[in-house]
Amino acid sequence: MNEKKTKQELLSRTIEHIDISKHNPVSMVDAMKHMAYSARDLYRASEIYDRMLRDKDCGIILCLAGSLNSAGLKKIFADMVRNRMVDAIVSTGANIVDQDFFEGLGFRHYIADEYLKAGMHDGMLHEMMIDRIYDTLIDEDELRVCDDTMQKIIDDLEPKPHSSREIIREMGAYLEKQGKATDSIVLEAYKQDVPIFCQAFSDCSAGFGFVAHIHARQAAGQPVVSIDSAKDFYELTQLKIKNPETGLLMFGGGVPKNFAQDIVVAAEILGVDVPMHKYAIQVTVADVRDGALSGSTLKEASSWGKVDTVYEQMVFSEATLAAPLIVGYGYHKGAWRNRTARKWNQLLEPTAVA
After folding, report:
1. Would you say residue 8 lies in a domain?
2. What is the pLDDT of residues 173-206, one digit of tens each?
């Protein structure tokens, strides 16, 4: 029987984000080349990512799905932005808002005691305003502050449809003005002009902020800010048209995976013949047999004309294991030092739909 703890005691051990600059996995990953199963797959994925970084014509799109930034991967992705290892990000809203922006506001995620993982005490956690993601805890009171902050940012926008990219840039500007955030993906992307797209932007704290914004504005008879997901799609398609050679590095699947792959077809619909994604890596634990998008193979995507089959690799692994190895491999191989920052946000401003 576990002694009942206070909220402060339960939220006492913070998740610490792994720093790839301090851990060089190159020799170990290279050794995996001579192994089998997922080890060899992971080596090949790492080698393909290194190829992306060395290919001066390749624009790299990072896709994030699942609770990654709450799990200790946030600094990896922030370092990718900071070091020109990625040119655009397509993500779920939770990763960007509830996890990265949330920590940018000064809050943290916490390690759950082992006995909490079974779910037997979730009712108690609910009463204490603590949310659980498997073995990670979040203070719901602090998440409400994140919701309120999103409403404030939305309230200050021009009342018209905006892409999620435009709103996330404003979030980055807010964090820079506050001057508190460190190793934030949103902040680094703002500084480096790396666009972030969240096609399902309402499915996170941003959605709660929008609900509160619309309710207050409609009650006052005022025009509202809205999200235009089609504008997101159009903008990302424009990047493919302007930089035809692209590579995908995907952790998880779902909406970010489909959204990023579909821009090849979208460009064709606009009458522009662009090549399939030249490189593609997906790290997932989803099964290929149930028809779900997250587990569909990259070879399957080639049947849709989205992904080439020369440099593609599926890695069936949980992201917190694979990301430090794959991205760490690319970081310590050092090809990013010779990459030029594409600053794709600057490309999008003149073409954004009014």
Report:
1. no
2. 999 999 888 899 999 999 999 999 999 888 888 8
Say how far apart CA 16 and CA 282 lie, in whole Å.
25
Q: Name 110's bridge partners.
A: 14, 137
- Is the residue at 208 inside a domain? yes
Catalytic residues: 306
Q: Which two tokens stand for residue 212?
A: 């509160």
For residues 151 and 209, the answer to whether their CB atoms sit within 8 Å is yes
Q: Distance of alpha carbon 338 from its chain centroid, rounded?
A: 24
Q: How many domains does one find in the chain?
A: 1
**Residue 77 to residue 65: CA distance in whole angstroms:** 13
Task: Please give the Cα distance from 198 to 78 (Å, whole number).
Answer: 17
The domain that holds 133 is classified in CATH as 3.40.910.10
The residue type at 40:
R
Q: Is residue 329 part of a domain?
A: yes
- The DSSP call for residue 274 is -
Compute, in degrees rounded to 10, the torsion defined by CA atoms 41, 42, 47, 52: 100
pLDDT, averaged in runs of 10, over the chain (354 residues): 84 98 98 97 98 97 96 98 98 95 97 95 96 96 96 96 96 94 95 95 88 95 94 96 97 91 95 95 82 61 63 94 98 98 89 44
Burial classification of residue 291, based on how many CB atoms lie within 10 Å of its CB (0-12 exposed, 13-18 middle, 19 or more buried): exposed
Place of tokens 């808002």: 97
Q: Phi then psi for 172, rounded to 5 degrees?
A: -65, -40
Residue range 63-93, pLDDT digits in tens = 999 999 999 999 999 999 999 999 999 999 9
pLDDT in tens, 331-343: 999 999 999 999 9
Asked if residues 330 and 85 have their Cβ atoms less than 8 Å apart, the reply is: yes
User: By three-state DSSP, how is residue 250 classified?
Assistant: strand
Q: Which two tokens stand for residue 9?
A: 């005691």
- The boundaries of the domain holding residue 73 are 14-351
In a domain, 131, yes or no: yes
pTM, two decimals, is 0.93
Name the E strands within 100-156.
110-111, 130-133, 136-139
